[in-house]
Write a structure and sequence with these properties.
Helices cover 35% and strands 26% of the residues. The protein is built from 11 helices and 14 strands. The protein has helices at residues 3-12, 65-79, 133-137, 152-168, 189-201, 215-228, 260-271, 297-300, 303-324, 356-368, 375-381; strands at 16-24, 34-42, 45-53, 58-63, 80-87, 91-96, 102-107, 179-183, 207-212, 233-237, 251-258, 276-282, 327-333, 344-350. The chain has a 7-stranded antiparallel beta sheet with strand order 4-3-2-1-5-6-7, with helices on one face. Residues 115-120 and 336-340 have low confidence and may be disordered.
C-alpha cells in the first residue's frame, strides 16, 4: 500500500488514531517544528485537529475528514522528513529523504482507539477554538480562540474554577444584580471569568467588585474592564479588613489571600450572610508557632512537615468554624498538586442553621493542638 492509500483507508474507515510530523524539510519557510494530528469531537461533530508547535506557542486548526486526508498527504510529500502514523491496523514510520524518496516501515499497532473511535478533548465551560474577549485581552488565547501553550494551565484553572461555581449554583434561582466580591483579586483572571460566566453564559446581570492592595494591578484591571465594556465589574484599591459593603452580597471569593487575610474574608462573608463562599487559602503562617502536640512531636520537629501540618490544621479549623456558623462545607482540590501545593479550595454554602456539633468539634480539635487566641475568633468577636 502506498502513502495515499494508507492515509485514505485509515481516515475513511475511522481507523486513524494519531499522527506526528517532525523535522521540517525547509526550516526557513516553515515556522512549525512539530505537528500532531488526531480525531476529536467539537460540539458533537467529528473532525481532525492539527496542533502546530512553534518554539513558544501551539496553534490549532480543524479540518473535515476529507480535507484532512489531503493535508496529511501534503505534509508527508512536501512538509516533513520524519512522520509516524498510528492506526488501529498498524503503526507506520515514514522517512522522506533529501531527494524526496519515501521509505515506509510497517509495525504492529501500538495504540488503541477510544471507544467512540475518536480521542475526545475535554469539553470546558469556556471552550478552545471559540473566541472569548477577556481571555484574548489577558493573553490566554488569540483572536481565533486558540489557547497559547504557555497559558494552557491558566486556561484549565479558569475552567476548573467555573465548574466549581456552576456546581455551587445548582438548585439556586439566579436573579439580576447577583452580587460578588472578590477579595485579593490580583490580576483578576478568575474575576473576569466570573463576569463572563454570569453575564454571557448564564444571562444574569451580575455585579462584581474586585479588591486588592496593589494599586497598579487595580488600575490595570479597571483598564481591561473598560476595554471589554464590562460595566458592572469594578476594581477597588483597599484592604480586606477595612472594606465594608452595605447591600446584599450573594458570593464571596477569596483566592490566595495570604495567611490571616483569608480568615478576615471568611469572617466578612459570615457577617454579611453571603450564600456562597469560595476560598483558596495561601501562606497559612499563623499556626506554625502555635501548634503543639507531644505525641506528634516526631513529625512537628521537622520544619517542612510542621509547615504542611500547620496548613492542613488551619484549613480544617476554618471548615469547622464555617460549619458552626451555618454553612455546609467541602474542602476540595482546586489545582492538581503538581502545579502548586496551595491547591485546597474551601467551598461553603449557607444553610442558615448553626451547627453545635461542629462547634464542639472545633473546640476539641483546638485542644488537640493546644491552640488558643486564634485570629479568626478574635476578628469575628470584634
Amino acid at each position: 500500500m502506498n502513502i495515499q492509500e494508507i492515509v485514505n483507508k485509515s481516515i475513511e474507515e475511522n481507523k486513524f488514531i494519531y499522527g506526528v510530523f517532525t523535522t521540517p524539510k525547509n526550516k526557513s519557510d516553515n515556522p512549525y517544528k512539530k505537528i500532531t494530528v488526531r480525531p476529536v469531537n467539537v460540539k458533537n461533530k467529528s473532525i481532525i485537529q492539527f496542533e502546530k508547535f512553534t518554539d513558544k506557542q501551539a496553534f490549532h486548526e480543524n479540518y473535515s475528514y476529507e480535507e484532512a486526508k489531503e493535508e496529511i498527504i501534503n505534509l508527508i510529500t512536501d512538509g516533513y522528513k520524519n512522520i509516524n502514523l498510528f492506526t488501529s491496523d498498524a503503526d507506520y514510520q515514514i522517512i522522506v529523504s533529501k531527494k524526496g524518496s519515501i521509505k515506509v516501515t510497517e509495525k504492529q499497532p501500538s495504540k488503541k482507539q477510544s471507544t467512540d473511535n475518536h480521542n475526545k478533548k475535554k469539553q470546558y465551560i469556556i471552550n478552545e477554538n471559540e473566541p472569548c474577549d477577556f481571555l484574548e485581552l489577558l493573553g490566554v488565547m488569540n483572536k481565533q480562540g486558540m489557547v497559547y501553550s504557555k497559558k494552557y494551565d491558566k486556561f484549565k484553572q479558569i475552567n476548573k474554577f467555573l465548574e466549581i461555581v456552576d456546581d455551587s449554583l445548582k438548585g439556586k434561582e439566579l436573579k439580576d444584580d447577583f452580587m460578588i466580591i472578590d477579595f485579593g483579586c490580583g490580576k483578576a483572571y478568575l474575576t473576569f471569568a466570573l463576569y463572563y460566566y454570569f453575564y454571557y453564559l448564564r444571562q444574569v446581570k451580575v455585579k462584581i467588585i474586585g479588591l486588592d492592595l496593589k494599586e497598579e494591578v487595580i488600575n490595570y484591571c479597571n483598564e481591561i474592564s473598560g476595554k471589554l465594556n464590562y460595566d458592572n465589574l469594578k476594581f477597588i484599591y483597599g484592604d480586606i479588613r477595612n472594606f465594608d459593603y452595605k447591600n446584599n452580597i450573594d458570593m464571596i471569593v477569596t483566592l490566595h489571600a495570604c495567611d490571616t487575610a483569608t480568615d478576615a474574608s471568611l469572617v466578612k462573608a459570615i457577617k454579611w450572610n453571603a450564600d456562597i463562599i469560595l476560598s483558596v487559602p495561601c501562606c497559612q503562617h499563623e499556626f506554625y508557632d502555635k501548634i503543639k502536640n507531644i505525641e506528634l512531636e516526631p513529625m512537628l520537629k521537622h520544619g517542612l512537615i510542621k509547615e504542611r501540618v500547620s496548613s492542613l490544621v488551619t484549613d480544617s479549623l476554618r471548615g469547622l468554624f464555617l460549619e458552626a456558623k451555618g454553612y455546609k462545607v467541602q474542602l476540595m482540590e482546586f489545582i492538581a498538586m503538581e502545579h502548586t501545593p496551595k491547591n485546597i479550595l474551601i467551598r461553603a454554602i449557607k444553610t442558615g442553621k448553626e451547627n453545635k456539633n461542629a462547634e464542639q468539634e472545633y473546640n476539641n480539635f483546638k485542644k488537640l493542638w493546644n491552640l488558643e487566641d486564634l485570629f479568626i475568633e478574635n476578628y469575628y468577636n470584634n
